[in-house]
Write a structure and sequence with these properties.
The longest helix is centred in the middle third of the chain and has 16 residues. The protein has ten helices and 14 strands. It folds into two domains: 220 residues, Rossmann fold (3-Layer(aba) Sandwich), CATH 3.40.50.300; 65 residues, Alpha-L RNA-binding motif (Alpha-Beta Plaits, 2-Layer Sandwich). Strands 6-7-8-3-9-10 form a six-stranded mixed β-sheet, sandwiched between helices. Strands 2-1-4-5 form a four-stranded antiparallel β-sheet. A four-stranded antiparallel β-sheet has the order 12-13-11-14, with helices on one face. The protein has 306 residues and is an alpha/beta fold.
Length: 306
Amino acid sequence: MTDAAIAIHNLCKTYQGGKRALDGVTFDVPRGQIFGLLGPNGAGKSTLINILAGLVNKTSGTASIWGFDIGAHPRNAKASIGIVNQEILFDPFFTPIETLEIQAGLYGVPKKERRSMELLQAVHLADKANAYARTLSGGMKRRLMVAKAMVHQPPVLVLDEPTAGVDIELRQQLWAYVRELNAGGVTVVLTTHYLEEAEELCDRIAIINHGTVVANEPTRTLLSRAQEKVVAVTVERDIEALPQEVCFQKIALVGERTLEITYSKDQVNAGEVLAAVQGAGFGIVDVSTREADLEDVFLSLTRSVA
């Protein structure tokens, strides 16, 4: 039994025709965490999730879920994971309560152990329990998908782009429920193109590009890899010509008296940048900085191997 919720080692997938979607992917998802799996379109994320779901056969390598190898123990592995796909998949002519009851039956959950109404209450759909699923809004359908993935109480939940097309209020409700599940011991794997969500929610993030893992670190450690920093400097007089200093990577005029300067924090510090501005003959009135975010790191890592 491994301590990882999901353990993937040297996983490869080559489709018919020679397209290599995964090329030796290796990483563990620690139990009890919210784990971000990020990458540009076509990076291999969906292939990886479909392999874990049992929808795509791996070419080589190993993957286990909650200690169960997906090849040797497929039933136990599938019972240990719930997956919310990008696509909305359920019969539009069933009601939400019927959808959950049928899904629970497919997983062999005894009737007395089913929690269908409890799940609908958790995702704020109790008042829609007996409405046809086709009448639900896009956000409601997304939340029903989350409830559907949890009917068998899996210890691992995979959310593949769960907030695509969902408004801000419903997004906040969904993340509140995900945090509640995580606090109750559910390990969550999240893929999203909203990088600010991953930065806020995830304990650890892996980034995949061209079928390989290019980063796998705690979120704070990953953010510290960004070396570019931006400082906005407001000076005491109008700027007729931009100062050019060696320590400036980029400089732009963003107002009559405000300079936006980009510098590399592994080569120079903010004090040296401000001293250079003063050395160019400008008195400084105000200073503000912008720290690098996950988007900066993501772009630097995915561009470097593009």
